[in-house]
């Protein structure tokens, strides 16, 4: 069961076995979030039933920044009659019924809470979320339903990733040629250029490493960096953010697959360029204005520390 405070970020055509009616009814939560029913089902969700839904989130300029349709599985929640809403968004999710189609329009800080606003949004920026309930299921049949969905989703995702990888490899090889890079390629499809050999033992799965990095897409637009001067140069500087090497354990799924694989080719002190096809990055998911669906990512990295485990 997903926790209520994670519902907005939980990972089908809208369908319902209950009756729907178009109502355009507008309501307001206890903390002032206004939401509108586009359609409303007439069958109330019972205690213990699972609500399966899809959602999209857009900025005030109508830019899509998150969509559950990009994920292999739709998000879900289990309806508990005694659950307590902590925010207005909780109130909305706790009262979803089969067939509901709801549009929420409010500020980012009201929807995500002031502490949970994504870094690419301002607290007072308008956000619109569209929620569509696609099924409500009794607990006894939910697991079989979701297992079937998972199998179908995984198969489809694997087929799409294979096609996308072939397209991305062509794009990466064109980029390498145009920029006169001498790159090698791993079996999975990560291209890399080792610009400076490091010293010491090779990085291995489980090692804790620290990395300075600058990430950008094929047209050179920077989306993130751990280096303050690079951030100022690229126009992505954020006041108050600590600019320092990023530390994580390799091979534990804490970063995108292309990082887990590519950084194991390096040593402490190594500098390299990693060119990562989208299936080994964020795939069809959008991660803000720069990283759109199926974005090839390039990282200039420097390994500043390696702690063997």
UniProtKB/TrEMBL annotation:
Cleaved signal peptide residues: 1-22
Keyword flag Acetylation: no
Name the UniProt record assigns to this protein: Peptidyl-prolyl cis-trans isomerase
Keywords from the named record: Isomerase, Rotamase, Signal
Gene3D superfamilies xref list: 3.10.50.40
Superkingdom classification of source: Bacteria
EC number: 5.2.1.8
PPIase FKBP-type domain: residues covered: 206-307
Enzyme class label: isomerase
Pfam families assigned: FKBP_C (PF00254)
One example GO MF annotation: peptidyl-prolyl cis-trans isomerase activity
Keyword Signal: yes
Similarity remark: Belongs to the FKBP-type PPIase family.
Catalytic activity: [protein]-peptidylproline (omega=180) = [protein]-peptidylproline (omega=0)
């Amino acid at each position: 069961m997903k926790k209520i405070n994670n519902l907005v970020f939980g990972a089908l055509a809208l369908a319902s076995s209950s009756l729907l009616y178009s109502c355009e009814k507008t309501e307001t939560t206890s903390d002032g979030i206004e939401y509108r029913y586009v359609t409303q089902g007439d069958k109330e969700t019972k205690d213990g039933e699972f609500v399966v839904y899809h959602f999209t989130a857009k900025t005030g300029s109508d830019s899509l920044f998150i969509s559950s349709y990009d994920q292999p599985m739709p998000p879900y929640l289990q309806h508990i009659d005694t659950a307590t809403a902590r925010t207005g968004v909780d109130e909305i999710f706790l009262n979803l019924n089969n067939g509901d189609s709801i549009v929420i329009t409010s500020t980012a800080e009201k929807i995500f809470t002031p502490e949970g606003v994504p870094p690419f949004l301002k607290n007072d920026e308008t956000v619109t979320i569209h929620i569509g309930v696609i099924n409500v299921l009794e607990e006894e049949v939910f697991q079989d339903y979701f297992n079937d969905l998972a199998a179908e989703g995984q198969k489809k995702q694997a087929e799409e990733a294979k096609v996308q990888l072939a397209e991305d490899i062509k794009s990466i090889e064109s980029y390498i040629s145009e920029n006169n890079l001498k790159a090698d390629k791993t079996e999975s499809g990560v291209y890399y250029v080792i610009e400076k050999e490091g010293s010491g033992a090779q990085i291995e799965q489980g090692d804790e490493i620290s990395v300075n990095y600058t990430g950008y897409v094929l047209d050179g637009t920077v989306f993130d960096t751990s280096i303050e001067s690079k951030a100022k140069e690229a126009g992505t500087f954020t006041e108050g953010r600590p600019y320092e090497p990023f530390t994580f354990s390799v091979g534990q799924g804490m970063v995108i697959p292309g990082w887990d694989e590519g950084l194991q080719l390096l040593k402490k002190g190594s500098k390299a360029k990693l060119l990562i096809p989208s299936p080994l990055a964020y795939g069809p998911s959008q991660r803000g204005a720069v990283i759109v669906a199926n974005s090839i990512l390039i990282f200039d990295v420097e390994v500043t520390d390696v702690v063997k485990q």
